[in-house]
Amino acid sequence: MDEIIAKIDDLEMLSQIDKLVPFHGYLSTGAFIGLQMLQIARKLLDIKEGDRVFITCETFNCLPDPFQILYSCTVGNKGLKILDYGKMAITINKAAEPRQEKVKGLRIFLDPEKTAKYPVFHAWYMNERKVSHEDAISDLIEAGEDVYTWEYVDVPVSVKVKKNVAICEICGESFIRIDEEPICQGCSSNNHI
Ligand SMILES: [Zn+2]
To answer: From CA 95, how far away is CA 83, in angstroms rounded?
Structure first.
């Protein structure tokens, strides 16, 4: 992989890879895709280092990790939302101004019509055969932004509502109610794991 990374001449991207690798465990193709999507978003939404950003990832696989480590978007701080659609796509936006109801965001996806120009990488994307991360990332470095499609989208700003906390009638633990249900979701689904 070092030989592949040596082809990257963008110093900022190299320093991002340095932070990403220990966090994710290794440089996976999916994590690298997230990194390239981040580059596009930073340019088009004028995201600066240290800005608070919000991201929705349409897969659990690899893609969220660059945003977690480089922009501190986590599930816990509501900077990261995952929609488990199994898609290589993200929507990203900066924080809204006070009282703003929607904010300009960018949805970016890895476009199969465009990846078709890179047969090795396309074979990885479509899972047609085993392709090493080295080979897939090598194509991505060559392709750069060429394999992505994006559009601006309006992202609704979520409003903070007061939490409705109750004690579950079965387990006796407290939980945040969605409606006026008397028992927690763990007890109602009989599933705590
Ligand atoms: Zn309960």
So the answer is: 20
Q: Phi/psi at 162 (nearest 5 deg)? A: -65, 135
Domains detected in the chain: 2-156 (3.30.1330.130), 162-193 (no CATH)
Contacts of 120 (CB under 8 A, 6+ apart): 131, 135, 136, 138, 139
Instruction: Give the pLDDT of the chain (193 residues) as one tens digit per residue.
Output: 888 998 898 999 999 999 999 999 999 999 999 999 999 999 999 999 889 999 999 999 999 999 999 999 999 999 999 999 999 999 999 999 988 999 999 999 999 999 999 999 999 999 999 999 999 999 999 999 999 999 999 999 988 889 999 999 999 999 999 999 999 999 999 877 7
Residues near ion ligand 1 (CB < 5 Å) are: 168, 170-171, 184, 187
pTM exceeding 0.90: yes
Residue 173 CA, ligand 1 centroid: distance in Å: 6
